[in-house]
Amino acid sequence: DANGRLVYGSPNLFSYTGYQPRELLHRTYLKLVAPEDRRWLVALYLAKTAEGASEVACEFQALRKDGSRVWVDQRTTIVRDRQGRVVEYRNVVRDISERKAMEEALKEGEERYRSLYENVAIGLYRTTPDGRILMANPALVHMLGFETFEELAQRNLEEEGFEPGYPRALFRQRLESEGQIVGLESAWKRRDGSVIYVRESARAVKDESGRVLYYEGTAEDITERVTAEKALTESEERYRLISEMISDYAYAFRVEADGTMRGDWLTESFTKVFGWTIEELDRRGGWVGAVYPPDLPLWVEHAGKVLHGQPDVTEGRFVTRDGEVRWLRDYAVPIFDPAAGRVTRIVGASQDITEKRKLEEALEASNELFRALADAAPAAVLVLQGDRLLYANKFAKNLVGFSDVERRNEENFDVLKLVDPAFREQVRSWGYARERGEPAPNRYELPIRTRDGKRRWLDFSVVTFPYRGQPARMAVAVDITDKKATEEALLHAQKMEAIGRLAGSVAHDFNNMLLVIMAHAELLKLKAGQDPRFLAAVDGILGASTRAAELTRKLLAFARKQQVHPERLDLNHEVGGTLKVLMRLLGEDVELIWRPAEDLWPVV
Question: N or C: which end of the chain has fewer CB within 10 A?
Fold first, then answer.
């Protein structure tokens, strides 16, 4: 309606938004609009209404009941009465989420292309058959020694090309006949006359009639690689001579067109250790004849990478003529021949790492033994460095209740979180002090909180040792919770025994005083005659003394200085015996009503 309340909605509206009709009807339509779009949407409709417009079109984000958002296109017809007042807004809403997603993807794609074009390290260009430069990215402009594209574009490639040894006419003829050129390597001359080496790929873009519109391509500066290859070729002989004097091994292979690798040369040090000459290896089928059979797939993969132009490093085993298995770390580098369009040579060096591997295997065996012993120990074993937990045995994990995730990611677990907060900073400071070589206790007891909230007491023994060049700590913690509970029970018993002794001593002295009081009370009773008031007072003294004597007897029984004799008591009689005393204590303004229970069972 004119106030923006929803008075009608099609079934599709409610199914699409997830609302029930009663949740939307006669409520503001803005409930379906994303909060950030409401203000401008209201302003748009107010402006269009004030202008007298009959239709409004807009796009905004709609809000579903589940909180999800969708882009919609809304077409509104403004219905007015004869006086021109707005009666209602009739809206047709269409989901345009797919279109918006496509627009966003297109925008991102254009941005990626622009970013790639401007920032890619290789040169990109577009030229016409008559030699005009239509486009060149910043990398190509810089590669050719120009400051701006405008300066480069003033040059006509038909009149003044960049490849002195390769006329543009031949380039154009090959490109138009073959349709593309891939991996052409040549020397280009820069603006200042210096020479760079470039690997170029290009294609001819034609119209429907087959007429060439332009050429587009890439140019990669390979000057460093070409220079390095020349230097490598020049130094190869020097490299071979030096390799002969080292204890490890160096080699070179020729690569045939079918991918077969033939030995070119091999350092004498390899022959001395493995017993194979390069001729003997060739007769055995090449280098694979000396490979330890289980490692053959690994070495084949290594060779495949290098044959495809990728330098690679791997570790594996070879077998000597005498049958000894030795470990090698091999560094292999391919040499690419641009004319042949493939790798034609492989040079490399191998480092004998047999002793290193034996040490690693011994270390792993030692670690396995440590883990086995630690997991069998009836105590928690922890290895820490700083606040990081490096290792925890099974007992420790089960004690504190590690989750499965923490069992797999121990280094992400802060073990100090388990320490009782009252002790946490003290333990942390001890750990740091110990790693700095400062004095710190190596034995202490402290409580922790397990994952289920239980409090456990542990007896820690801590030692410091180097780990990966930094100090680390190993803590062995014995669960002494039961021992602590026994100590507390013993302490409580000792306290109770002390209290009992005190109570017995007091009761014994008090009992002696009561005997005197009761004796004098009996004498008073004998001399009181028949005076009822006097007799009542004396009886009160005797009754209170008797009850005090009973209390004394109980204290002596508690102190175990008098044997306990259980007696049957009538509660009505016992309570009734205190009434006279209570009446005098309460005073005349208080009425005490005593109703003894009938058929009350006696107690012991």
Answer: C
Tokens for 458? 């542990």
Give, as one character, the DSSP assignment of residue 102.
Answer: H
Residue 115 within any structural domain of the chain: no
Q: Is 295 within 8 Å of 317 (Cβ atoms)?
A: yes
Confidence band for 580, pLDDT divided at 50, 70 and 90: low
Which one has a higher pLDDT value, 560 or 153? 153
Residue 547 lies in a domain: yes
Domain with 508, as residue range(s), is 489-565
For the beta carbon of residue 74, count every other beta carbon within 10 angstroms.
18
pTM above 0.70, yes or no: no
Which CATH number characterizes residue 52's domain? Answer: 3.30.450.20
Query: CB-based contacts of 149: which residues, under 8 Å, 6+ apart?
Result: 136, 138, 141
Q: Are 462 and 474 in contact (CB under 8 A)?
A: yes
Residues 6 or more apart from 408 whose CB is under 8 A from it? Answer: none
Structure tokens at 270: 């390899």
Beta sheet of 69-80, edge-to-edge order: 55-63, 69-80, 86-95
Mean confidence (pLDDT) of the chain: 81
What is the Cα Rg of the chain in Å?
50
Q: Which amino acid is at 95?
A: D
For 588, list phi and psi in degrees, rounded to 5.
-75, -20
Answer yes or no: do 465 and 504 share one domain.
no
pLDDT in tens, 17-38: 999 988 888 888 899 999 999 9
8-state DSSP, 600: P
Cα–Cα distance, 479 to 399 (Å, whole number): 9
Instruction: Give me 260's structure tokens.
Output: 């077969």
Q: Rounded to an integer, what distance in angstroms lies between the CA atom of residue 261 and that of residue 278?
A: 12
C-alpha distances out from residue 319 to 253, 281, 299, 344, Å: 20, 12, 13, 27
3-state secondary structure of 251: strand
Verify that 518 and 453 share a domain, yes or no. Answer: no
For residue range 378-421, list pLDDT tens digits in order.
Answer: 888 888 887 778 888 888 888 877 654 344 445 556 677 778 88
| Structural contact between residues 83 and 103, judged by C-beta atoms closer than 8 angstroms | no
